[in-house]
Amino acid sequence: MHRFANPTRVLRIAAAILPWSAALTIVLFASGLYFALVASPIDYQQKDAVRIMYVHVPAAFMGMMGYALLAVASAVGLIWRHPVADLTAKAAAPIGAAFTFVCLVSGSLWGQPTWGTWWVWDARLTSVLILFFLYVGYMAIWQAYDDQARAARAAAILALVGSVNLPIIHYSVTWWNTLHQGSSFSLAGSAIDPAMLLPLGLMTGAFAAYFVTVLIYRLRSEIAQRKLGVLRLRQAEGLQAT
Amino acid sequence: MSAFLAIFRRDLALSFRQGSAVTLSVMFFALAVTLFPLGVGPEPQVLARVGAGVLWVAALLSAMLSLDRLFQADHEDGSLDLIALGPLPLEFTALANIAAHWVASGLPLVVISPVLALALNLPLNVMPAVVAAMLLGTPSLSLIGAIGAALTVGVRRGGVLLSLIVLPLYVPVLIFGVAAIDAAAGGAAFRAPLLILGALLALGLALGPIASAAALRLALE
Fold first, then answer.
1. Helix H or strand E encompassing A132
2. Where are the alpha helices (DSSP H) in chain B?
3. Closest partner residue to A141 among B165, B167, B171, by Cβ?
4. What residues does A185 pair with on adjacent strands?
């Protein structure tokens, strides 16, 4: 774990990953969008609206994965006082929030033609909305503190408390099962036709690769910002000394 | 234990003697409930249908209203530093603060809730469910809220941030609190939602003081 507390080493690893994840993002998005929009069959009931699913499901998945990453990085940062983990959590939050937002909007656009309503107060929709609010609260607490080290710990505590919410999201479908369909995946297999599973898998891969790429960019800028702050402080100290 | 009781008694004495915090939160609760009939209309059937939700939303808001003073006053006048130096672990200090907060601002809501439930046209046989759900749910509100209060203790504009942090975490309590009352109103057994409320309370009791103490240590640095 402490190997990765060195920002220079992390930046080196990130620089090695970046071209691959960027290339993967482009390839997967190109092929995924082709299969999702052109080369996949329309649903017998949902017609073309089924294609929204290829954006909606990966966005929902990445929104939740983003929070899981946030929680793990926060735990690492809190336990080992790991500065890069803190910055990773900070960098991941806006991306996860954006995916959650995309999930909500695409779900709303899908719900209109399919369910006949933009929004229902179903358990799963509501918990995704709450996930979005958790992201917003997390980002707000980073901004509330002036001292970045304290902000990191306060945000980490909040992220861990909020991660209690993730299992509730997952089990809400079973608990309150109202309108949203149950999960189509299980360990035993999938209820989705292979022709639709292919674009769904490609799009999920594309979203994940995009997440990694943007995360690296954000992490770089966070570390650069941190360095800039330290350099400014040193400069101010030097001015005072003379 | 004596230190725990001392903090508990001190907090209670402060909230009962100073600034009439208790009456204020009860008045806010009653006022918030009063606004709903004015908003949705006075039809008894409508009110009976939304009554449980109105009661709980108002309870959530009024519990949150008094949260920002939970640790703030101690932090401002420096007594938090002295308490932290004492022999009692900060987790138990936080628990004493939370317990006092519940007695001062949660328990009065439980007491007045049957009256307001009647005003909202909920049937008389639902009152046991109302009181039981409130009794199990409001301590969770204090416990979860304490985490947010501790996280925002040294923060500018802490109040708005506090609501942003705490309200999403209140959702399970709201859902099962309303579920208990609605089940009772429908003539069904309301034991299951009450049990889940109890589980949430146990979870809050385990998580709340630890997370609050961790956040308070941060404020003491």
1. helix A123-144
2. 2-17, 21-40, 44-65, 69-77, 79-85, 90-101, 107-119, 127-151, 158-185, 191-220
3. B165
4. A190
pLDDT tens per residue, range A177-226:
443 455 555 544 556 667 777 888 888 898 999 999 999 999 999 999 88
Residue keyed to tokens 């490609």: A202
Q: Which of A132, A161, A163 to mutate to test the interface with B (most CBs of B within 10 A)?
A: A161
Q: A133 CB contacts (<8 Å, ≥6 apart)?
A: B164, B167, B168
User: Which residue of chain B comes nearest to A121, CA vs CA?
Assistant: B175
d(CA B53, CA B34): 13
Q: Which of B91, B155, B178 is the best residue to mutate to test the A interface, defined by the most A CB atoms within 10 Å of its own CB?
A: B155
Q: What pLDDT digit, counting tens, does each position of B57-111 carry?
A: 999 998 888 888 888 888 888 888 888 888 888 899 999 999 999 998 889 999 9
Nearest Cβ partner for A137 among B164, B172, B215 = B164
User: Which of chain B's residues have a Cβ under 8 Å away from the Cβ of A154?
Assistant: 151, 215, 218
User: How far apart (Å, rounded) are the C-alpha atoms in residues A160 and A67?
Assistant: 10
Residue B215, burial from CB neighbour count under 10 angstroms (0-12, 13-18, 19+): buried
